[in-house]
Specification:
Layout lengths: L16 H17 L4 E2 L5 E3 H7 L5 H6 L2 E3 L5 E4 L4 H10 L10 E10 L11 E10 L4 H17 L5 E7 L6 H13 L5 H9 L2 H4 L4 H6 L12 H16 L5 E2 L11 E9 L7 E7 L3 H4 L7 E7 H11 L11 E5 L2 H16 L4 E3 L6 H11 L3 E5 L1 H5 L2 E6 L5 E5 L3 H12 L1
Parallel strand pairs: 1-5, 7-8, 12-13, 12-14
Antiparallel strand pairs: 2-4, 3-4, 5-6, 6-11, 7-9, 9-10, 10-11, 14-15, 15-16
Helix pairs in contact: 1-5, 1-12, 5-10
């Protein structure tokens, strides 16, 4: 037993479970790659101020959950708690918005970190796949991203998820609503921290999950009643585009999400089979974020989907992904000469694009065949001194049990042909 263990609230991804996570990441990213989104990768840590300005100083993420530290050189850094601010910073730093082809469409995959109370579906280290469309204000772009996420989930076989949709207004109409909501909140019996939050960003109070707070929010002013004509028309276009493509959604006027930078369209993907941690992903439009972090005006929209929670959603629905075997061919040498010959054939198979493995450690036939079974390989090549003297190897179909002698020089071509028929 190792002296060390994974830190509290984290997990290790190990085979065979890790194959499911890889399949989920691939399924989420495939619709993006087919829609003009290019891959971006950012550092695991950034300047603290990037998140304080972008995510919002009043959010739980910044005030309570961010892993912040000071380097030996005196820099204040933080492990990234979310992806959007980092991706936008990278795009601005590289001047991608000046290339003349807006929106800049990017997707990413990585690990994120928040100091939270660990529970099922909520970890201190978690994995997300995200997408950002930077530099264009268009309802079709908002609808595109929602549709691509819906497509990704359905390609995995998920069915019991819901899309919640709302509009948070813009810089014209939200200040009016903000003032009305603050007046309402000041009249409630709230603790000091919540009242302080109400003064900084009152919309965040609507996202408070405590029953004693939610009970008092009955009768709170509705943002929908304060939307300007432009925001109403924009939101209606998003709704119409989704409906036209057969993507079901639910209007949720209380949906505000946990980040300060959202404007207009906001949405969340929830799965009712996950209990209290029902959100599997979400996002929205963030038209003012670029200016918040020192860039030009670049209206943008994006989302992030949790890989961990998507896997939990698959488990909740009993969906088992059809994962390809990691090994198609397993080689079992019996003797030194067979080790040399079969090792060469395994290398040749790999160069030909066939997944192949080898019995290492000089095991006997019985132990080596156990390894072949565990590998999941469809075919096993077995060779001893007598086989090689005759210029052949024994090829065994692990599913049917059939075994045939095949010429050493022909084994690669024979295996490729057999595997092609099974594909």
């Amino acid at each position: 037993m190792s002296t060390f263990q994974a830190p509290k609230g984290t997990y290790d991804l190990l085979p065979p479970d890790s194959a499911t996570y890889l399949a989920v990441r691939d399924a989420i990213s495939t619709p993006l790659r087919n829609s003009g989104y290019g891959y971006v990768e950012t550092p695991g840590f950034e300047n603290v101020e990037l998140f304080a300005r972008g995510v919002g100083e009043s959010t739980d993420i910044v005030t309570k959950e961010m892993y912040a530290f000071e380097t030996k050189g005196g820099d204040r850094l933080a492990l990234r708690p979310e992806g959007t601010a980092s991706v936008l910073r990278a795009a601005l730093e590289a001047n991608l918005h000046k290339a003349g082809n807006l929106p800049v469409k990017l997707w990413y995959s990585g690990s994120y970190y928040r100091y939270e109370r660990p529970q099922k579906g909520r970890y201190r280290h978690f994995s997300q796949v995200g997408a950002e469309a930077i530099g264009a204000e268009d309802p079709a772009l908002d609808a595109e991203l929602i549709i691509l996420a819906d497509q990704a989930y359905r390609s995995l076989g998920l069915r019991d998820f819901r899309i919640l949709l709302n509009s948070l207004g813009d810089k014209e109409c939200r200040p009016v609503y903000r003032a009305a909501l603050q007046d309402f909140l000041r009249g409630l019996d709230l603790d000091e921290d919540t009242l302080r939050r109400a003064e900084i960003n009152p919309l965040r109070v609507l996202d408070d999950k405590r029953p004693e707070v939610q009970k008092q929010l009955v009768g709170a002013p509705s943002l929908r009643d304060y939307l300007c004509d432009g925001c109403k028309a924009y939101h209606e276009q998003v709704r119409e585009l989704l409906a036209a493509e057969g993507v079901a959604y639910e209007d949720d006027e209380k949906l505000v999400r946990g980040l300060d930078y959202y404007t207009r369209t906001t949405f969340e993907f929830v799965h009712d089979g996950l209990g209290s941690q029902s959100a599997v992903g979400g996002g929205g439009r963030y038209d003012g974020l670029s200016e918040m972090i020192g860039g030009p005006s670049l209206p943008s929209v994006g989302w992030a989907l949790g890989v961990d929670r998507t896997v939990l959603a698959l488990e909740a629905e009993g969906v088992e992904l059809e994962l390809p075997s990691t090994t198609s061919v397993f080689a079992v040498p019996l003797g030194d000469e067979a080790r040399r010959v079969l090792f060469s054939k395994v290398t040749e198979l790999r160069r030909a694009g066939v997944s192949a493995d080898f019995s290492y450690g000089g095991k006997g036939l019985k132990g080596a065949m156990k390894n072949a079974n565990r590998s999941g390989a469809r075919f096993t090549i077995v060779a001893g001194e007598r086989d090689l003297a005759e210029g052949v190897v024994q090829l065994k179909d692990m599913e049917s049990g059939e075994q045939d002698a095949v010429a050493v020089d022909e084994i690669v071509a024979v295996l490729k042909a057999k595997l092609a028929k099974l594909a």
